[in-house]
Each structure stands twice: as structure tokens, then as C-alpha cells.
Amino acid sequence: MFQFSVVTQWIDEFLRSYLSEGWTLLVEFVLIALLVLTAYAVLALLLIYIERKVCAFFQCRIGPNRVGPFGILQSVADMVKILLKEIIRINKVDSFLFTLACFLVIIASLCTFGALPFDGGLHVIDFNIGVFYLLAVSSLGVVGILLAGWSSNNKYTMIGAMRSGAQLISYELSCGLSLLSIVILSGTMQLSQIVEQQSDLWFIFKGHVPAFIAFVIYLIAGHAETNRGPFDLPEAESELTAGYHTEYSGIQFGFFYLAEYLNMFIIAAIAATMFLGGWMPFHVPGWESFNGIMDYIPPVIWFFGKTFFCVFLALWVRWAFPRLRIDQLLALEWKILLPIGLINIILMTLLVIL
Amino acid sequence: MDPIINLILFSCLAVVMVLLSLLAITTKSLLRSATYLLLVLVCTAGLYLFLNYHFLAAVQISVYAGGVLILFIFAIFLTSQKGEILQKHEMKKYLYGALVFVAGIAVTAFAFIKHGFLYSPDNTTMLGDQEINMKVIGQALMGTEKYQYLLPFEVLSVLLLACIIGGILIARKR
What ipTM was reported for this prediction? Predict the structure, then answer.
């Protein structure tokens, strides 16, 4: 199996042979930051293209097809457009909070993105508390959304922000509970160990029914966390123009847009890591030759394949269901998902003990 | 890590924290004050990370930044008028504030002087440099032996339950 740790170790040794330790670390930090930011932006472009194409096919349209072959350069053109757009100054807003809000949203998303394990060696930081870190940092984004809605000085943004706050806080519980059941199964919160433990069989198969229930709950709750249809109440365009980011323009709006798409990717990537084995190829205990063949596919491809599968599920759901009302949304979380999640944890504990 | 780098990192965090705390209490707008407080709490999480105490850093962010601050912001949304300016306090309140400030300084100084630091010049072992395993923390929280915290943990959860029931009672009162 090809592992990226070979490449990263080689770069590390190469730098160490020329520089002292402090400078090596500094150069590595800068390199990693550049790499993460680039990956973030490129993935966003890719996701926007995929979303537009997939949505088009669901609606029997063609989608973007003018810029480049099959329209693949469309999102690049959009990026250039959004970078060149004027940032409109809104009258009578709290400009400090207004500017800070979009940064808070994107910083929360970027911090989460940075801690994902893309491959054996392609993992920026491997915290001992990995899963908890992901949950903690992603909760910072809610503050950004609330501030954006309030500081825009507009009733629609305010309503959008209130809805979003209620929605994100409630669905965070189900997300946490479903991830917790996998933590119970694996006995660790470190992402690298969680992936390593799935080398014989992925957790969704290893954990029998409770793991599957947790997977479904995580997909629903995670989808709600990304503020996308059918849970797109915070930015319901027919009611609230664009919800909490109505007043933003230019790259400030771009930040919200990027963060939304990348949050979808992050949720899918966490689902892939926790339930579908992350970068670990599909192995079945006992089938040695089959496992050998699976090892020929590089782990990065496994990771992105599983992640984009989950992204596709999210896109599918978006066009399959109508938007919920706010009371239905909260009832779904507090009366259905949360009790099921709690019972599921007990089931999982029994499964681990017995 | 290099002591110089350590010092630079610590001073950056400390200066930013002091500045943001001052801004949090001097600003006129209630929501700005809450935002500065949020940034102070995030910087505190940075300090914990700096001490290699990852668990506490994550708890700090998820509980304070993700939970308490959002409650504050919701409370401000629901109670305050748009563009409301904080009113000047009376002289008496300033006096109480100053007293609390002095008392806080005194307690901190007392703890600072009394505490036997691990990093004293004659003791060069770097105890805090390894990360504490999550398993150790979990077992300490859930154990019943000495220096383990199951009873306080359960007592706190009863307290939280009481808060929840109280909240529902107040909300349902017609």
C-alpha cells in the first residue's frame, strides 16, 4: 500500500539536512498552511461544479456546459468573478462584527478541514482527542452565523440567524451522539487509530445494526448542520431572500459560500472516516487475495471516493425532499433523532460489552 | 521546544488576551463585548494547547465558545433593543469592581507564590511536555477511587438537571 508518510518524511529529512530545527518547523508550518488553503479552495471549486452538474441531472437539465469541455472551467470563471467584485459597504452596520462574522465562519470550517486524515501520512495533526476536536472547532461557526445575521441590520438576516442558531445547536447533539457510539466501539478518539482499527472490516459492518443506525443519524444531522435543503431554513430564498448572508457581497459572501460547500465535504469526510474506514481499503477478514487486490488502489482514492459518495447522498437528499417547517425541523431532532441516538448508544455499549 | 520560541508564543497570546479583555469591558455595545469575550476564551484555549493539554483546550472551545457564548448571544438578541448603548454605572459599582479586582489579584498572587512549580531552575524535568492520554482522563472522571471524580461528576449532572427543570418551569408559567 502506498503511503504518503514516505513523501512527508523525505521532505522533513531534506529540510533538516539544510536548516536548524526551529527553521525546519517554520518552513513546514508555512508549507502545510499553503497546502491546506490550496486544497480548501480547489475542493470548493470542484464541489461547486459537482453540485451544479448533479443538480442539473436531477432536474433533467444539462448544467454548466459553455466554459471549457463539459463546463469544467465554469467554477474557475465564477471564482475570478467573485474575487473582482466590489465589497459593498452597508450603511449603519456594526462594521467590525460584520467583517469578523465571515472570518469566524471560514476559520471554523478551515480548522476542522485541517484535522481530517486524508491518508496515512497526509494528516496535519493527529490529536489524541481527534473526534472531540472536530466537534469542538466546528461549533465555532455558529457564532459567526449569529453575528452575521445580527450585524447586517436587516430583519431577514436576523430571522435567518435565529433559525440557524436553533438548528445548528440542536443537530450538534445528534452528530455528537452518533460519533460517540463509534468512539465506544473503537475505544479511542484518535483519528489515526480509528482508521487503523478498520483495517480488517469497516465499522459500519463491524458494529452491526447500531453502527448503521448511527451512520444514518449522522448523515441526517450532519446534513442539517450544513444548512442545506431540506434543512435550508436559515437561507430559505423564497422567504428570507438569502438568510443570514443577504447583505454580504464580493469575497465576503464568497467566504460564506466556500464554508458552506466545504462544510458539506467535511461532514462527508468525517462520515467516511468514522463509519466507512477513511483511507483504509475495503478488506474482508479471510479473503486474502481480495484484500491484496484492494490494496493496489491508493488510499487517497479510497478516501475521496467514499467522501464523494457521501457528498452525492447529500446532493440527492437536497432534491428529493421539500423544505421542512421550523417546528417540524426541531421536532425531528428532539423527538425522533435524539431519543434514537441515546438508545443507540446503549445498544452499542451492550454490543461492545457482550 | 526552544525557550525563546516558547516565550514569544506565550507573550503573543498573553498580550492579545489582555487587550481583548480590556476591550470587552470598555466597549459600548453589548454584542461586541460578547464577541471580545469569545476571542479571549479562544485565546485561553490556545494557552491550554501551548501547555500540551489538548483535552482542556477542546473542552474550552466547545463549552465556552460553542455553548455559553451562544447562549449569551441569544440572550442579547432576545432582550436588548437594536443599537442600545450600555449605561454608565454608578460610582459604588466601580468601587465594588475595584475590590473584586484586588481580591482576585491577591488570590492569584498567593497561589503563585505558594505553588511548587515543576519548571524551577533546579528541576529541569519536563513533566508537562507529554500529552496526557485521553484514556487516563476518562478513567479519572469515571472512577470511584482516590483522586477520581465520579461523585462530583454525578452531582454536577444533578445540578444541570435541576437547571433544565427550572428553565422549563419558568418558560411554561403563564
Answer: 0.81
